[in-house]
From TrEMBL:
One of its GO terms (molecular function) is ATP binding. PANTHER family: RNASE ADAPTER PROTEIN RAPZ (PTHR30448:SF0). This is UPF0042 nucleotide-binding protein. Residues 3-119 form the RapZ C-terminal domain.
Length: 126
């Protein structure tokens, strides 16, 4: 079984990490940042998690990405798979998707590590 490394990040804080699969969540899924109540929160907060996971298409993306990782893992030379989960600031959507994806992959037997590269950075003012 392949090990999986998931890195959440914010495009506004630098380049995407090198990855086998990169999920760019910026345009397809509304940013919780636009709601002042959620701006200073992170993907660890219940309000943000609910908002992101209840966004149309997110659960389908998680399911499809899980299948994609399973396909990579079935390859003859794959021992380590890197997934990048990116949004604008790296605090909301990318964190929720990374954590939920990790949970799904662990249930399927993968060893998964998760790093939130930009979660502690200052909120981007835009």
């Amino acid at each position: 079984m392949a090990t999986v490394e998931i890195v959440s990040f914010g495009y506004l804080h630098g380049q995407a990490p090198e990855a086998d699969v990169t999920l760019d969540l910026r345009r397809a899924f509304r940013d919780p940042h636009v709601d002042p109540r959620m701006r200073e929160l992170t993907g660890y907060d219940r309000l943000v998690r609910r908002k992101v996971l209840n966004t149309a298409g997110v659960r389908q993306l998680l399911k499809a990405t899980t299948r994609q990782v399973q396909a990579y893992a079935a390859g003859p030379n794959v021992e380590h798979i890197v997934i990048g989960s990116g949004c604008a600031g790296g605090r909301h959507r990318s964190v929720v998707v990374a954590e939920k994806l990790a949970r799904r992959l662990r249930r399927r037997g993968h060893t998964v590590t998760v790093t939130h590269r930009d979660i502690r950075r200052a909120v981007v003012q835009r």
